[in-house]
Amino acid sequence: MRSAIIGGSLSAGSKLIESELAEHFGTSRGPIREAIRELSREGLVAEVPRRGTVVSTLTARDLAEVYAIREGLELTASRSVINRAGDAELEDLAEPLRAMEAARRSTPDYAAIAEHDFVFHRRLVALAGNRRMDEINETMLALTGLLLRTAAEANPTLRSDLDRPVHEAMLGALRARDHRRASEAIEAHYRYAEERLFAQFAQD
Asked: Domains in the chain, start-ordered, CATH in brackets?
């Protein structure tokens, strides 16, 4: 269900009917009910008066909140990564950047390109070795997936506009073990991302 929401087959505002979802996914209503609870905790679905449970429609406020949390996680993670990660672990961060660049050259599928971006950010936070940070980050990445899909539908130019240099600056600062540069690069990344996306969302 999470993949269906992020991928768009369950679109924003769609009403979630347990019996229909159970038939679609080939399961009983119990697992569907539990999945809806989990997706509600993640913010991907919401209870709407007189409508029931629907796929969330995200706004500029959601974007600001999600990106503020992600930025804070990565600023904290980067300090730990610089202090404790080995050189080989840092080099693992380069692989999704290469994959993202290759995908950008070979496919118009924005979701496929963005998935490599998610791998980079997921690995960065994971290198801090903090399980609770990982869990929060996964929730924020799921919401980011929905935000990006919504924005890309509103503005197709976003599909070819992922900026590699902001990621390379982050990786370069981590390789140099430079706390100040890492913080500046992470902050620059999130300002760039917000500038690309804010115009696509209605203010609430």
From this structure: 2-55 (1.10.10.10), 60-200 (1.20.120.530)
Q: pTM, whole model, 2 decimals?
A: 0.84
* Long-range CB contacts (within 8 A, 24+) of 142-146: 142/2, 142/6, 142/42, 142/44, 143/42, 143/43, 143/44, 143/58, 143/62, 143/66, 144/66, 144/67, 144/70, 144/118, 145/6, 145/111, 145/114, 145/118, 146/5, 146/6, 146/12, 146/44, 146/56, 146/58
Beta-carbon contacts of 139 under 8 Å, excluding residues fewer than 6 positions away, are: 41, 42, 43
Q: Which helix (H) or strand (E) holds 62?
A: helix 60-84
* Average pLDDT per 10 consecutive residues for the chain, totaling 204 residues: 85 90 92 93 88 87 93 97 95 94 80 87 97 95 87 66 79 97 96 81 56
As to burial, measured by CB atoms within 10 angstroms (0-12 exposed, 13-18 middle, 19+ buried), residue 143 is buried
Q: Rounded to an integer, what distance in angstroms lies between the CA atom of residue 188 and that of residue 139?
A: 22
Neighbours of 177 (CB within 10 A): 14
pLDDT at 92: 95
pLDDT of residue 180: 97
